[in-house]
Amino acid sequence: MAYFEWANDMVIDNGPIDEDHRKLVDLVNELHTATSQGRGQEVVDKLLTQLIADTEEHLREEERVMEQAKFTNLERHKQGHTHFVNKLHELRQKQQQGSVTVASQLSSVLRDWLSLHIRRNDKELRQFLQQKSRQRSA
C-alpha cells in the first residue's frame, strides 16, 4: 500500500491540474519508499530538484487558470503557493548544507500540502469553476 493514496476528494479539474497533483503524489510515495529503505539521502537531491521545477510550473499554470476564471480568492491562493515554494527552497538549502533530516521533513511537508492545500484550498477552485460552468449553462 502506498504511503499516500490519490482520492476522489482531491479531484479539481479532471485534467492538467489533477495530472500535476497525481505526479506530486507519486513523488511523495517515491520519497517515502526510498526513506523507508534507508535511501532517503540518496534520492532527496534529485527529487527536490524535480519537485521545485514541477511545482513552480504547476503553480504558475494553476494561477493562470484562476486569473482567467476571475477566481475570487486568487491572492490568498498565491500566498499559500509562495509559502509552499519557499518551504521547498528552505529544504533545498538545508539539504545542500548537509542536513540528514531533509528527506523526512520533505515527506511531511508534501503529505501536508496534499492533504490540506489540495483538499481544502484547491477544492474552493473546483467549486468556483463548477459554479461558473453551471451559470454559463443556465
Automatic annotation (TrEMBL):
Keywords: Iron, Metal-binding
InterPro entries per record: Hemerythrin, Hemerythrin-like, Hemerythrin-like_sf, Hemerythrin_metal-bd
Gene3D superfamilies linked: Hemerythrin-like
Domain called Hemerythrin-like: residue spans: 17-125
Keyword presence, Iron: yes
Entries under PANTHER family matching the protein: BACTERIOHEMERYTHRIN
Protein's name according to its UniProt entry: Hemerythrin
Organism: Simplicispira metamorpha
